[in-house]
């Protein structure tokens, strides 16, 4: 078990600008020692045969390719606005979120 002294914990608390009582320093010394031991155990795992990765699961792009369609297959403005709850001057109407200021 990694032993951290009260002085080391007090130094770390000072660097983090955290004020701690003597009882809190004693308690934190034990808790930090457990955390450091756990991190050390993870570091002992041999992982030479495991390649580095950015994500544990494979990521794939699920979007469709961007394809230009002929004009007769595109939505008209009226078709696009047909499902809108509100419209004004041929555009979607949405609630104002910014003031005039």
From TrEMBL:
EC number of this enzyme: 6.3.5.-
Bias (Basic and acidic residues) ranges: 88-101
Species for this entry: Arsenicicoccus piscis
Pfam families referenced in this protein's UniProt entry, alphabetically: GatC
Name recorded for this polypeptide: Aspartyl/glutamyl-tRNA(Asn/Gln) amidotransferase subunit C
Family statement drawn from the similarity comment of this UniProt entry: Belongs to the GatC family.
UniProt signal peptide: none
Domain of life, source organism: Bacteria
Subunit structure of this chain's protein: Heterotrimer of A, B and C subunits.
InterPro entries: Asp/Glu-ADT_sf_sub_c, GatC
Region Disordered: start-end pairs: 78-101
Keyword annotations of the record: ATP-binding, Ligase, Nucleotide-binding, Protein biosynthesis
Catalytic activity, as annotated: L-aspartyl-tRNA(Asn) + L-glutamine + ATP + H2O = L-asparaginyl-tRNA(Asn) + L-glutamate + ADP + phosphate + 2 H(+); L-glutamyl-tRNA(Gln) + L-glutamine + ATP + H2O = L-glutaminyl-tRNA(Gln) + L-glutamate + ADP + phosphate + H(+)
Biological role: Allows the formation of correctly charged Asn-tRNA(Asn) or Gln-tRNA(Gln) through the transamidation of misacylated Asp-tRNA(Asn) or Glu-tRNA(Gln) in organisms which lack either or both of asparaginyl-tRNA or glutaminyl-tRNA synthetases. The reaction takes place in the presence of glutamine and ATP through an activated phospho-Asp-tRNA(Asn) or phospho-Glu-tRNA(Gln).
